[in-house]
């Protein structure tokens, strides 16, 4: 997976330095086909592949009358957030720090925090767009119902996005180089995919394993999104797990983050 390593240009003569940084980072972001594929393209493509399997479109009494494809739409919504938090954002920001770009920015009107906020905003927005694409494909191509509890779904999705970006910020804080950030992200990537239910939906896991997975951020997210998609308000225990992880991970990232 490729990552952007081109330094953000320091804007001059603009009324809003942050807006200029955001525009620059957005332009660089669009030039990275690898990032765009893994965040915007991969989850929808995987959804189409899974939906093309006949067994995924058959009603399963063991799933409460649902189909496997019904369960996998919320799961693939999570995939874009996992990719963003663990694979896309950390190497870019760590690369800026490694090359001294953040240190040089600290001596200009553009604070390094503007770059961090711009990167988190761009990556978070891209992941949310991917989620909307997955919901649209699921509805139009495979007759998957849209989330029946829209407000609960939106709340769970926003909390999950906060957790994913907080994980990315923490990886960025701990990694000294872009290579180390990629290595940490890869090490955490596959366990996160498992907890999200990519290989086995969380609700189908054995009881003990399910309870353990539901205590992880993406396991709780999978359950919360699944409940909201089915028309129920997400369990407060799952929302609480998401909120707690977001706070703890964000605090840790702030505590250990270094601009140099």
TrEMBL record:
Keywords: Antibiotic resistance, Cell membrane, Membrane, Transmembrane, Transmembrane helix, Transport. GO terms for cellular component: ATP-binding cassette (ABC) transporter complex. This is Transport permease protein. It comes from the Bacteria. It comes from Kribbella pittospori. It holds the Pfam family ABC2_membrane. The chain crosses the membrane at residues 35-56, 71-93, 114-138, 150-173, 180-200, 235-257. Residues 34-260 form the ABC transmembrane type-2 domain.
């Amino acid at each position: 997976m490729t990552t952007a390593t081109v330094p953000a240009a320091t804007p001059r003569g603009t009324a809003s330095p942050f807006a200029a940084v955001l525009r620059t980072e957005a332009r660089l972001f669009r030039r990275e086909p690898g990032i765009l594929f893994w965040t915007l393209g991969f989850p929808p493509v995987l959804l189409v592949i899974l939906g093309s399997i006949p067994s995924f479109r058959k009603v399963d009494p063991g799933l409460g009358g649902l189909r496997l494809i019904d369960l996998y739409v919320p799961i693939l919504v999570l995939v874009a957030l996992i990719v963003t938090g663990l694979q896309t954002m950390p190497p870019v920001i760590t690369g800026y720090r490694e090359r001294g770009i953040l240190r040089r920015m600290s001596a200009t009107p553009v604070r390094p925090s503007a770059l961090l906020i711009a990167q988190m905003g761009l990556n978070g927005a891209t992941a949310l767009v991917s989620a909307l694409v997955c919901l649209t494909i699921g509805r139009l191509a495979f007759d998957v119902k849209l989330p029946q509890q829209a407000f609960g779904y939106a709340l769970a999705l926003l909390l999950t996005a906060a957790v994913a970006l907080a994980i990315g910020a923490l990886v960025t804080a701990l990694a000294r180089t872009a290579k180390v950030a990629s290595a940490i992200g890869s090490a955490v990537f596959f366990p996160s995919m498992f907890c999200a239910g990519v290989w086995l939906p969380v609700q189908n896991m054995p009881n003990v394993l399910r309870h353990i997975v539901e205590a992880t951020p993406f396991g709780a997210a999978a359950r919360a999104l699944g409940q909201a998609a089915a028309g129920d308000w997400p369990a407060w225990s799952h929302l609480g797990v998401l909120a707690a992880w977001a706070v703890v991970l964000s605090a840790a990232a702030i505590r250990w983050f270094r601009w140099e």
